[in-house]
Amino acid sequence: MEISNKVFFITGASRGLGRGMAEAALKRGAKVFIAGSNAKTGEETLAALQKEYGADNVRFGKCDVSNKDQFTATFQSAVNSFGQIDVMVNNAGILNEKTWELMIAINVNAVIWETNLAMEHMRKDKGGRGGVIINTASVVGLAPFFWFPVYTATKHAVVGFTKSWASNPNMPSMGVRLACLCPSAADTNLIHPKPDQCICYDSLMAYLDVLEIVPVSAVGDAFIKLVQDEDSNGKLIAIMPGSVSFYTEQVLDPPLMMPKLDTSQDAKK
Hints:
Elements: E1 7-11, H1 16-27, E2 31-36, H2 39-53, E3 58-62, H3 68-82, E4 87-90, H4 100-122, E5 131-136, H5 149-166, H6 171-174, E6 176-183, H7 201-210, H8 216-228, E7 236-241, E8 247-252, H9 265-268
Parallel strand pairs: 1-2, 1-4, 2-3, 4-5, 5-6, 6-7
Antiparallel strand pairs: 7-8
Helix pairs in contact: 1-8, 4-5
């Protein structure tokens, strides 16, 4: 997909990875609606981005993604502002094992209904223009991490949900691609949990002391590649630290475990 003049809707975009992805898209001529739960931070980010990339190219909406009605209204506001959404980025997430029910609501439930809402808006077979949906998972969605078992479970859920949607044999007629962004520990607030927000806190701190942190800009660059790649449906891109100055990335194709499916009209009913 060509980035210029496309409309991006990004949750959790007031700071961190979401803001990095918003800037990466804006630099390439996109229009971006940033959604965030903190009005003050969101307005500050909006002002900074509008100053840099133009007032007509960025909008902000305060939104608690765990509130389905509020999110739906914010999504509609974005559609009203820009006419359509071409790229949906479900990025909002929290890491707090103490409030695991809320973590599941934000990291899993919200991603599911946001994806489904975007699909209904984008699907060509239902009058939409097609599009791309990117769900932010993590490398912890690909392997076990004992420091935060519920958070890890939520990211496994995002990976499984995204790849399962993408494997639908009717995706070509829908005209929508789904893919997953799986960064290693990136330079955001999530890598600074409090002792009661994880398990074995001292062990985690010792691990983070020796772990190379991925810069937000590296995640933004990988994100753009997923959007641009017309063959990215069902793919994961894992962004791992390589050295002090560089990072490495690996595109993982979905495993060929599905049996051959009957895609005839009778099978679609």
